[in-house]
Design goal:
Elements lengths: L2 E6 L2 E6 L4 H7 L24 E4 L3 E4 L10 E3 L3 H16 L15 H8 L27 E3 L9 H10 L5 E3 L6 E3 L16 H5 L5 E3 H13 L1
Parallel strand pairs: 1-5
Antiparallel strand pairs: 1-2, 3-4, 3-5, 6-9, 7-8
């Protein structure tokens, strides 16, 4: 496959033809915020909208979905790009349960880590206040895994990894709009019947939406003893 040469923030970058801008940037050690991107995925989900960049002469695009072309000039830090990333981040946390201090994944949470990357800070508690939507019950139907829809940002990573491992997905999106959540195609509780309990969906989850019951039990025991 032929390679092309582009510029990202004035830095010459060579990449294989067809490579997405985001991957070309990361390979060149140029960081672009991202949350739902999976390098191995042939069809990027493009759901988090954090990876916006500006292409000279073409405008704003999500870098995970846009392939490189010869002579392309990419800017990753323009005022318009920064505004869009901040808006996208605020939309992600608008439906997220923001009990970060008590969250078991606070030290490994990619969503929390990205707040500094996109420069979104809470000046007052109201700035990060969750929208007044209904809190949904935990799905504990699986013997090994817990799903917390209140912490799910619908990035699609678990859907992808489940499909890759099993050839079909036992996890998928259900409902629409603000009611969207994870479920399996038959619309019964998450992973109640067919899940093989491989744990890959938990490993790839960027937040605390999916967790292993055994690990959570240990965390809870430690918390109670301190």
């Amino acid at each position: 496959m032929d390679s092309v040469e582009i510029k990202i923030d004035d830095k010459p970058v060579k990449a294989k033809e067809g490579t997405k801008i985001l991957q070309a940037a990361l390979d060149a050690e140029i960081y672009i915020p991202n949350l739902c991107y999976i390098p191995e995925s042939e069809l990027p989900f493009g759901g988090c909208r954090l990876c916006y960049v500006e292409i000279e002469g073409r405008g704003l695009v999500t870098s995970c979905t846009q392939p490189v072309t010869e002579g392309m000039v990419v800017k990753t830090q323009t005022p318009a790009v920064k505004r869009l990333r901040q808006t996208a981040y605020k939309l992600l946390i608008a439906y997220h349960d923001l009990d970060c201090p008590s969250c078991w994944k606070r030290k490994k949470c990619e969503l929390l880590r990205l707040s500094a990357k996109v420069k979104v800070k809470a000046k007052t508690p109201e700035d990060f206040r969750r929208l007044p939507t209904e809190f949904l019950p935990l799905d504990e139907t699986n013997p090994f895994i817990i799903y917390d829809p209140n912490r799910c940002i619908l990035c699609g990573k678990c859907v992808w990894v489940c499909t890759k491992r099993n050839g079909e997905t036992f996890i998928d999106f259900a409902y629409r709009g603000s009611n969207t959540r994870l479920n399996i195609s038959s619309n019964i509780p998450l992973m109640e019947e067919k899940c093989e309990d491989c744990g890959e969906c938990v490993a790839i989850c960027p937040t605390a939406a999916l967790g292993l019951k055994a690990e959570l039990a240990v965390v809870e025991k430690v918390s109670e003893s301190t």
